[in-house]
Amino acid sequence: MWQDKIQAVLKSKEMTQEELAIDADLSQSAVSAFLSGRKNPSLNSLIKMTTALDMTLVELFSPIEPKSTYEELSRLKLELHKIIESAESSQLHSLSLLVAISKKILR
């Protein structure tokens, strides 16, 4: 379920539901109700939560991968962002090719 994926992302980012609520501009009680299944979120609330978690709705509703795999992909994504940020302009073309290849592999 999508709630499990959000819980896995929260865990991998060492983030609490309260922090998610603040970042998503939602009440903590609403986030808790959404993630426990007591209440269904609106599309707007889902967008706010996924944006706060740096993910897309497509990622949220794609089949759930084993948590360890998802956590590993999250870690690799963060490392890739660090590499891109520290790259010189001459290296950015090579990095963009690497990203494109990685996206194809991960599909």
From TrEMBL:
InterPro entries: Cro/C1-type_HTH, Lambda_DNA-bd_dom_sf. Coiled coil: none annotated. It holds the Pfam family HTH_3. Residues 6-60 form the HTH cro/C1-type domain. It comes from the Bacteria. This is HTH cro/C1-type domain-containing protein. It comes from Shewanella sairae.
